[in-house]
Amino acid sequence: MTTILLAVFVLFAAINLTYFLTFFSFASARQQTASSPKTEAPVSVIICAKNEAQNLNTFLPAILEQEYPHFEVILINDASVDNTLEVMEKYQQLDGRIQIVDVVNNEAFWANKKYALTLGIKKAKYQHLLFTDADCAPQSKNWISEMSKNFNPEKSIVLGYGGYFKNKSSILNKLIRFETMLTAIQYFSYAKLGSPYMGVGRNLAYTSAQFYQQNGFAAHLHLRSGDDDLFVNECATADNTALCYNHSSITRSVPKNSFGKWITQKRRHISVAGHYKKKHQLLLSLFYISQVGFWVFFPFLLLTAYWQIALAIFGVVLITKGLLYFKSAEKLDEKDVVWLFPFMELFLIITQFGIFIANIFSKPTHWK
After folding, report:
1. Contact by Cβ (8 Å): 54, 138
2. Of 24, 39, 157, 246, which is least packed with CB atoms within 10 Å of its CB?
3. Domain 43-258 falls in which CATH fold?
């Protein structure tokens, strides 16, 4: 029986180790510097806001201060009940580059962000579209420049990194940022290997031609979430997708300030994963299963005669993960979360299992 237990642990450890060795395709790669075009193509920055008056006042100036010669800002008021629209109009009076789309709830698309985004995209006058959220701030004045210079006749989608603001005294903050970093490691690695499967709406760019070629969000308009990851999963390929993750291209947003709110957010995100392409569902599921098996079987083997073998395997996998996390954290400016990675990883496994169970019985219904 203990021999079988060891064999199963070795299998899970080998699968898990293979994934993390594969992730080094991102962690060890240098950010390719996109050649700057002779003329910088104009860009439409699109921000969809629902009850975001305070965040717009805080973060919109960082968008307007971008050092880029030709851009407009499309502000979408998605049926807010606070004074979001008034804040938008205030900034529009100060800056002529701002265009406002005021969305009134439609019975057929009630509280559907994709409907609001579609109206914003139709309003944009430039073909290069750059998306972020109302609670996001670019971490440099070159964000638009860094993201947009990855466009070329072959590349119509640009995946960026959207992190969260740091709170050094908060364990929840570190957990949120660790989970965000792990997600980014995966989607950048898959894209690096020619199989992009998602992006994040906090920092994502694509062309209007790509949007209309894909018939917008039509394939998943009935789902409340997925305006970013499902769209990318549907149309991104090895040929049309570029990656941008240097420090000047990063955006950061306000993380949830309570565990309950974060769980609600994660439930919404995870609820659409079942609509990814089958190969991506399989690969992501196998990764999670290997994580569970690695952590579950190890403590049992410590109580057997094979404890030394189990400990050696555990050490090899853990060292590999540590190196991967450290190199990735350097790239994404998240180094302060690395040292707690065994605890963070184990806690995420337990949390994700609870979310999967919760989503079986009830699905999140609104984007906010």
Report:
1. no
2. 39
3. Spore Coat Polysaccharide Biosynthesis Protein SpsA; Chain A (3.90.550)
